[in-house]
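Hi V.,

You were right to ask for the full record rather than a summary. Here it is.
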Amino acid sequence: MKYLLLSFASLSFFAACNNNSVTENNTGKVAETATIQSAAPPAPSLPSFSIVNDKGQVLDLAQYKGKSVFVNLWATWCAPCRAEIPSIQKLYAKTDKNKAVFVMLSLDNDFETAKQFAEKTKLGLPIYYPASNLPTVFSVTGIPATFIFNEKGELIHHQDGAADYDTKHFSDLLNQ
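Predicted structure:
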């Protein structure tokens, strides 16, 4: 009996928390009308975030709004990061620089390590270093991680782990 009362009380509680309203229609019967209104959370957007380029200039990532932005979090000590770089370089070579910007954001302990790596390997991609803490949108548990934002600054692709970026799909995303 105790369990029966507990079960009934539980059912009553859940029935009361379902966001439905009960109305009586013109036939005298009770009708249940769903009133659930769920707004999708806003999509992550291109953050205002200070980065330093290999010439020592501090820039704001948000200044690239109006173009597609390809952001790759990487480090020289990360083997999967180094493995995907050739495909990113090929994508970069095929991309209209008037429509898209590439930001290879080094997470090495110091930027000098990344700059030496870029020089030694003849990396043809623009490299940057965080000048402030990473914004929430770039919170990841591992690298490499890639984020692609459209010209409106909306996140349209997020990839955790290495990928082959030398594809029509990624070229189309950046050359819209």
